[in-house]
């Protein structure tokens, strides 16, 4: 115990923060992209137009049956092939995460849309609003309100999953922690520190979710 | 104004509406009643095309609702509808509830829409609630807001689907009063309701439905004084004797 040296953290703080920043930034962007794309997929799925709903259903089921790490690899190798030029590890990872998360978000959003009473859309219809206006002004705002806790929960999972980007040699928080751990020979300190950081961020997130849920039932 | 002819509708194998025909002339008030599950809501939702029908036709102000490719959004903008459970938008204030379709469907300016909203709310005595969300209002107030929301579109006819049956008894009259006033202003109305007092007072005709069919369709006085069918007699004795 006496030879614990937590100064290693202070000494490498800027490097560690860079990693954390990448993790958070990737989580945030993939979440935004995933929600936008997931909303589109959910609307396609519920549109009642067969080719659209079939496409959305196939996409969602396909993506959900492969591991994330595989999708990250695919896009790392495939995107440069498709575009004819490399786009960088960060962007290929971002695309992979966005497309992957969109499948999960679309299922959450679909349930959210279905949780809005059917009479609400009927009221909009009865007043002459078209399908997109009804979704935009009446259904989606209520659906998202009901969904925020689950979306945040999914965001926490996404944040943890960003640690997989080490496979395309991106330096996320987990990766920089391991680098510091190995180069400084301080494995125990660094892995405890990494665990605490993940715990604090995720726990804060789930406290936030619990407060939202309480606010909703109150 | 509204002409329903030989309308039939199925949910899968189940026939909800069988050969229904009736008319609502301009300025007329027609009350639709009948036991629960008899198809009243379905019939009234066919009028503005919220529910499609498989056979027969509905003409509203000359527009064929049941035709393929009918411009339903345009038609619906001109027919007001009031629901049993109000269906106010809970995430919007009363003002936004009244302005949304005015601005998005009728392309009215914000000022025009707000002015219209204020006038209508004033008429039902709810001006002071304009900034509240529907959840902060009583059921009777919510339904009056819902009626105002429909009227904001300057409809040529109004459809009501059991507008008072979700209300506490002490709030029923404040909503019926608004409807009576509307009728005396000459609004064309088709009203699904079990409020027989209202029917007696303002309805020109009563349509009685049972098991998806229109069993009686007669002038109000005749319907109450001498119902022809046993089913209507039975229905009336049940509803008037408690
Ligand atoms: N979406 C639906 N799918 C299948 N059956 C339905 C649907 N909506 C209504 N029904 C059935 O149609 C019948 C008539 O319903 P409705 O028009 O709501 O009756 P009412 O308004 O007179 O109580 C009922 O038996 C009801 O169960
Ligand atoms: Mg009904």
Rg estimate of chain B, integer Å: 18 Å
Strand order of the largest sheet of chain B: 6-7-8-3-9-10
| Ligand identities | adenosine-5'-diphosphate, magnesium ion
Q: Characterize the biggest β-sheet of chain A.
A: none
Secondary-structure arrangement, i.e. CATH architecture of chain A: Orthogonal Bundle
Q: Helical percent range of chain A?
A: over 70%
Q: What level of helicity do the residues of chain B show?
A: 25-40%
SSE topology string of chain A = HHHHHHHHH
Describe the fold and architecture:
The complex is a heterodimer of chains A (218) and B (242). Chain A has 218 residues and is mainly α. In chain A, 82% of the residues lie in helices and 0% in strands. The mean pLDDT of chain A is 90. Chain A is flat and about 70 Å long. Chain A has helices spanning 7-11, 13-46, 50-64, 68-83, 89-114, 118-126, 131-161, 173-184, 187-217. Chain A has one domain: MetI-like (MetI-like fold). Chain B has 242 residues and is α/β, with parallel strands linked by helices. In chain B, 38% of the residues lie in helices and 25% in strands. Chain B is built from nine helices and ten strands. In chain B, strands 6-7-8-3-9-10 form a six-stranded mixed β-sheet, with helices on both faces. Chain B has a four-stranded antiparallel β-sheet with strand order 2-1-4-5, with helices on one face. In chain B, helix 3 runs parallel beside helix 5 and helix 5 packs parallel to helix 6. The two termini of chain B are 35 Å apart. The complex binds adenosine-5'-diphosphate and magnesium ion. The site of magnesium ion has 4 residues of chain B, from helix 1.
């Amino acid at each position: 115990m006496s030879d614990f040296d937590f100064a290693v953290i202070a000494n490498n703080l800027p490097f560690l923060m860079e990693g954390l920043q990448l993790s958070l930034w990737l989580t945030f962007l993939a979440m935004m992209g995933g929600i936008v794309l997931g909303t589109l997929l959910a609307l396609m799925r519920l549109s009642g137009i067969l080719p659209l709903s079939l496409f959305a259903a196939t996409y969602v089921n396909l993506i959900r049956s492969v591991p994330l790490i595989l999708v990250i690899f695919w896009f790392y190798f495939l995107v440069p092939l498709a575009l004819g030029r490399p786009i960088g590890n960060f962007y290929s990872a971002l695309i992979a995460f966005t497309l992957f998360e969109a499948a999960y978000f679309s299922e959450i959003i679909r349930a959210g849309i279905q949780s809005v009473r059917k009479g609400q859309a009927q009221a909009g219809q009865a007043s002459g609003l078209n399908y997109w206006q009804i979704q935009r002004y009446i259904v989606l705002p209520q659906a998202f309100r009901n969904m925020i806790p689950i979306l945040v929960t999914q965001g926490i999972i996404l944040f943890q999953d960003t640690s997989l980007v080490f496979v395309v040699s991106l330096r996320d928080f987990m990766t920089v922690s391991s680098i510091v751990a190995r180069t400084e020979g301080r494995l125990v300190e660094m892995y405890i520190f990494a665990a605490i950081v993940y715990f604090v961020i995720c726990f804060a997130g789930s406290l936030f979710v619990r407060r939202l849920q309480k606010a909703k039932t109150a | 104004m509204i002409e329903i002819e030989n309308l039939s509708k199925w949910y899968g194998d189940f026939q909800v509406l069988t050969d229904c025909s009736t008319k609502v002339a301009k300025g007329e008030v027609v009350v639709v009643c009948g036991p629960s599950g008899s198809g009243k809501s379905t019939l009234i939702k066919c009028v503005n095309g919220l529910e499609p029908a498989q056979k027969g036709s509905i003409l509203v102000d000359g527009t064929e609702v049941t035709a393929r490719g009918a411009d339903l959004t345009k038609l619906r903008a001109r027919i007001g509808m009031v629901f049993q459970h109000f269906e106010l938008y809970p995430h919007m204030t009363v003002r936004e509830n009244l302005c949304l379709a005015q601005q998005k469907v009728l392309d009215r300016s914000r000022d025009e829409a707000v002015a219209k909203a204020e006038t209508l709310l004033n008429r039902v005595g709810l001006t002071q609630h304009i900034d509240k969300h529907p959840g902060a209002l009583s059921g009777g107030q919510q339904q009056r807001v819902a009626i105002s929301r429909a009227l904001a579109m300057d409809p040529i006819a109004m459809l009501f689907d059991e507008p008072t049956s979700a209300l506490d008894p002490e709030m029923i009259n404040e909503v019926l009063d608004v409807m009576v006033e509307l009728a005396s202003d000459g609004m064309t109305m088709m009203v699904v309701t079990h409020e027989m007092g209202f029917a007696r007072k303002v309805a020109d005709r009563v349509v009685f439905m049972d098991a998806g069919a229109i069993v009686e369709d007669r002038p109000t006085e005749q319907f109450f004084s001498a119902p022809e069918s046993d089913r209507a007699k039975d229905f009336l004795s049940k509803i008037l004797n408690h």
